[in-house]
Amino acid sequence: MGETVFMAHSGVRYLVLAVGLVTLVVALVAMLTGRASAPGRAAAGAFRLFVVTIDTQVAIGLVVVFVRPFHPMYIGHIVMMGGALTVAHMFAIRLRKAAVDDGGPGLIVTGTLLALVLVVGGILAIQRAII
């Protein structure tokens, strides 16, 4: 079981990265075109999906911690992933309070970019390839 959960955790990282990149592109288009209504709503939906993928990845990662041997190098990975989760949720809360037309795409770009940087840092912390 431990190996299966570990492989799922390793594979879902590609989903997190892909959804994060799509979210970033959609939010950049919304921000740069200045048409925040439809593209802004699409960016907000993509960002919610990005947050859900991070939540899923962290949940699978918690299972991995309990079913596989723990190595000290995982500490940096766990800290970075916790940071990514925190950033994603902080921006999701902030976005919920902001109107889509009032800088929502900018918030999404910033939150997605920060979370992606932390995810990449977390992957590198355990000496894994990004792609």
Structure in words:
- The chain has 131 residues and is mainly alpha-helical.
- It has one domain.
- The chain is built from four helices and no strands.
- α1 packs antiparallel against α4, α2 packs antiparallel against α3 and α3 packs antiparallel against α4.
- The longest helix has 32 residues.
- The chain is elongated and about 50 Å long.
> What fraction, in percent, of the residue positions are helical?
over 70%
Overall SS class:
mainly alpha
How many whole angstroms does the radius of gyration measure?
A: 16 Å
**Average pLDDT number:** 90
The description of the largest β-sheet is: none
Strand content: under 5%
**SSE succession:** HHHH
Which outline best applies?
elongated
Q: Count up the domains.
A: 1
Number of strands: 0
* Helix count, DSSP H or I runs of 4 or more residues: 4
Termini separation comes to: 25 Å
Uncertain stretches: none
Task: Write a brief caption for the model.
The chain is an all-alpha fold.
Write out key terms for the chains shown.
single chain; 131 residues; mainly alpha; 4 helices; 0% strand; elongated
Write the layout of secondary structure elements.
Blueprint: H1 2-33, H2 38-67, H3 74-97, H4 104-125
